[in-house]
Amino acid sequence: IHRHHKRTPYASNTFPRESYRWECKDQGLFYYGEALDSTSNKTSASTYWSVYTDPVNPFAQAGFNGSCQFPQITLEGLEDSWQHGKDLYGVYHDLLGFLPSQIDNKVTYRVSNNVITSQVAGMLIQGMYNPKGNVPLHIQPSDIDSLAPSYSCPAASKLYSTYGVGSFAANWTAHLSATAPLFKALDTVSGVAPTSAEWHNWFDHYYDNLSARQCHAKPLPCNISDPGLCIDQSQADSVYRLGQYEYSFIYRDAPQSLQAAAGSYGVFLAELASRVRAAMAGQSDIIYRHNVAHDGSLARLLSFLQVEQMVWVGMGSEVVFEVYKRAGGETKWFIRILWGGQVLRSSNPSLGWKEGSVDMLEVKVFLAYVDGLVGRGAEKVVAFCKG
């Protein structure tokens, strides 16, 4: 499971008016439906969205002018997605001989209901397999999706709100009060209203806006009316540092974070446990499951695994669950979890049994940990969310 790759910022994270354009004319976002019945000779044209603004339209576009959707995976993000797929194939096929040479029913891909994950998946699959035919992307209904996640869990949302974004908890508001001068300086350049709660109850909006620019080698913004008044690199670095602090606090440092993550991401973990059990029992032909998700997905997953050091999950960052069976002797199964290409380190003594590393941990220990928090079939999640 990994976060999508580079994208434009969300529209809600753009300034009221941006000082330069953002163009995406070097790519196409392909959207069309087609009959899967092989007997039909009525196929679809290969169509893509071409964003434009008509000069007759009297309404001004908020945020960036240009030819992009906000968000969409950029050309750089598409290229990263392709390379990600190529690298995965290089490791799990060429190096380890695990993946099949051609895409088949042993390999599946899953995305969220946000189209940017499908934009990534298409390029990634091409980088892995260069398939000749159509490839299904598995997706759950939008109101119960466990990957994003988007299923309703009021208890988890309420718990997050008691100590994190929007709360009045002193250990949350302290850093916001201390950084009031930084917010004021950012607002002066951006034109964001100082009274906007969404922009000032955490640094998420400024983080996304500034990091999206710098991920694409775009200049930091200047004021529309005063081009000499700009956000400088030291201010941007402060935003990034504070964003890292906020993610660590929300998903790891706060005592309530584990329970909140178990409630809001427990269904995905229950699904994962079910897949592992099926593999061990020889009840599934699928050997590789690939999930394209979001920063909130990975953050909750890392929270659940009690990662030793929490960060704001970067574009393309992945967590890999590898299941091993011992060759010869008594049958035993083991799991290794990778984070950022290295063995994940967990603060939980059951998971991080090897000096903090989740490395060749007996599967039964991992499954007991998951079941203890979310229950078989996520039964404990249902009870918690309704509580």
From TrEMBL:
Family annotation (SUPFAM superfamilies): Phosphoglycerate mutase-like
GO molecular function, one term: phosphatase activity
Protein's name according to its UniProt entry: Histidine acid phosphatase
Organism the protein comes from: Cochliobolus heterostrophus (strain C5 / ATCC 48332 / race O) (Southern corn leaf blight fungus)
Lineage, uppermost ranks: Eukaryota, Fungi, Dikarya, Ascomycota, Pezizomycotina
